[in-house]
Amino acid sequence: MSIVHVPDIPVALSTSSAYPETCAAAFGLAERLGYDAMEVMVWSDPLTQEAGALKTLVEHHGIPVVSIHAPTLLISQRVWGNDPWDKVDRSIELALELGARTVVVHPPFRWQKEYAAGFTDGIALRENDTGIELAVENMYPWRARRRDRSREMEAYLPHWDPVTQPYDHVTLDLSHTATARSDAMAMAEALGPRLTHVHLADGLGSNLDEHLVPGRGGQPCGEFLERLADTGFTGSVVVEVSTRKVSPEQREVDLAEALAFARLHLATVPVME
User: Fold this and answer.
1) Domain ranges for the chain
2) Within 13 Å, how many C-alpha atoms sit on residue 82's CB side?
3) What does CATH list as the number for 11-140+152-266?
């Protein structure tokens, strides 16, 4: 006889998945659809930057914040000034105030040479001092949007691939593995317990970072989630998909589908002798 076991892995919704709707709208969507938690992407929406406002949303909707995504993207370069370490430190403060255990950060861009030179040590020092997991996210090489698709630019330092870097905590994003044309399963195996946070999305391997609903691209999203369940993963799975070009009605359908996909594949069926 076999029994279905559903591991205690929270499925969270990134506020970015509701864009161009607001952070407040994202919380409302998460409550209606039955998500377990939220990841707050810090950007120009003032609510994403204020602990007091976010605490009000948490209390009103009954959904905790498990992670903060630091404003280290190209589109958020002007949020909280120009100092990248100040952005990280303020994200840590926000996480501490909200009781979130993880801050997601991107590796430095190549032109941020001073930041990049001290990045690995700075990450380790802040983790030690605050107890917050700074989960560095896998990225991808930038490719020319021309007929010659072999041209690549290494846009990140020390590297876009965190596997060979000395980070204690890593975020693995399945849209980014598609864009990088990386093997997501091999990366998970190589990272082992350093894999502590997941951005669930999909992609078809184009030069664009697509963030498709899981199951609509070419990534092994289902197999990847099943591996998490089988290996005792203790982090969070965050749905981070793009819905900016769809109607509000379709956005809700897409986010419901993503949640159902995650819960289905996180349920494991152990063999009983």
Assistant:
1) 11-140+152-266
2) 3
3) 3.20.20.150
